[in-house]
Amino acid sequence: MQILDSVTCGDDYTAAATLSGVFASNGGYFNVSGADVYMRLEYGSFGDLSVTREVHVPPGNGLLYPGTSGVAFRNYTPGNFATVSAGISEHVEPAFALSASGAVNPVGSAAYYNVRAYGAKGDGVTNDASSIAAAAKAAGSTGIVYSPPGYTYLVDSVNITVANQPWDFTGSTIKVEAGGSGLTVNAAGVHLYRTVVDGNLAGGGLGSAVGWYSANGYAEDCQFNHAAQAGLYVINAGSSVTCVRCSATGNTLDGFIADAGAVLVTEDCKATLNFQHGFHTSPTAGVGCVIDGYAALNGVYGCRLQSVGGSAAGQSRVLRFVAYGNYASGLVLSDNANYWQVGEAFCSFAGIAAAAGSGGVVNPAATACELIGVVGNNVETVMGLGNPSYTLSLAAAVDNRIGLVQGDYTPGFNANPAVTVGSASVRNSIDTVLVRLATWAVDIGETAPGNENNDIGRIVAVECTFGALICSGGNDYNHVGEVVSRNSYTSDATLNGLVTLGGTYNIVDMVNHMVDSGSSPAYIVSFLSGSAGNLVRSLHDQYAYATGQVHDLGSNNCCAEQTATFADSGSIDFFAPGVWNVSVYDKTKGVQIGGGSFFCGQRTNALTTRDVIVGTTWTNAGGLTCTIAAVGTGTVGGVLRVTTAGASGDAIFVSYKRATVPAEAG
Questions:
Q1: pTM
Q2: 241 CB neighbour count, 10 Å cutoff
């Protein structure tokens, strides 16, 4: 270690400033009065190496220490330093530190009270609680309770009782001994910096790593680990703490929790491998909690919000939340969690076997984001990647608004829809759903019926194996603006439409179907048996790979307008009762082949007979032919088929428009 050899004043030293103090080989203290001075600190070291630094020191008491950084310390009284310096040569945190340019940068004006100067060993064996308490008492509300880095202080408990007192342990650890209860904060305005609190669960520690029972607390770059209860437990009405870049790992309960009227604010915090939740606001937590952070491999939820967000939207918030591998779900709002404002939630690979308490077993029901029995929340973005179950689940949710839902799944891993709306969820709105490789992109009524007046602006389904949208029986008055399906298909023989509607008076404004590879659906739109009054305003089938466009087993349902494009020679089936105005074009040659008004019959007599119409065939001057006829017998019923021939490879465009839309539809 380099030893301080001498201290001299620089050229800028003036008669108006005086320098006094004690300078020894193990350091010294000084006092500057009057004007600023520039001091030259000369260090000797092993061999011939020497270091010279110049330090600008404002008026006040200060400390010099042996080390390599050339730092002067302010605001140590000579009496305090006489105690601190005796036989101690380690680095002491500066109040003014030398910058790369040689200037002195203020990092605080309070005096530092080194717990080792008050007898703390920091060897991880000796109980240092009384020494830490002595340093805290001496520091009062104006000093900083301090430890150099690299020490572990064993304690039975530490109780902070001085208001507005800062603690800075520079990465050293406070470790709870067997039967001990950790660190508690019982004074307002306490600040913790760079302090590691180890609850020592394996060694018999009890309680939470830190229990915060007071208002206006602040923790920065701290760790709360391995406790028998929570990492950081904020409790009592009026208690509040803001955590910045803090982490909580390996705790038996939650990483961070607010309870009993308390308010928790986290900024860029991490919660990992806790056996319950990473972040948690209990049903009784206070209004104004803010969550911003990352949760991974926790045993239940990455973040569970149960507390009231406020009487109006925006009082409690999730700014940005990232979750990975949490065993049950990434983000959950339930119980009293009403009127929260959620910015962005990105949740991936929930339910993996590496999560705390998983027993090495994958959870197939793990979900990215859940809203359960909550009202009035505003969620801007939910993104899910590789989750085995839902990206978004709404259950008994009312009047919630979700902006973007994006889900990307691992082929063969998911068994559920990307978005499920169930258990009497009412008046919820989702702006956009983007889904790849799910079963259904959106399922309304999967868990229970009674889901009404929900609104989805746009659904984009890519390579989904069941389809883009299903709204089953008992779910009424729901609305979807646009459904876009690309390379999705229906592997379910009973629910055989990319858009499958049951219930009554559900409306889809537009359906766009595109296929350029993979399997083809049976139908684009399917109205289930028992459905009535459902309306699809417009359907566009780009490649007409489906068996048919519309399959109607209900009553008074309507697909008002349809178009299909397919390559000659080919055909397209349409199954829906009513009178239709049909036009057929050869898009390649830019000519119309034919058209007219046609009637497609309703199934009758227990689905065994149908009305039959006589086929009509046109041949235009170019030799293109088109036949429109009712086909099929028995249970097939009411199929209108358009077939073209004579222009191999040409793109054939067919337009159907319903002559009249039933008053009951929509």
A1: 0.79
A2: 26
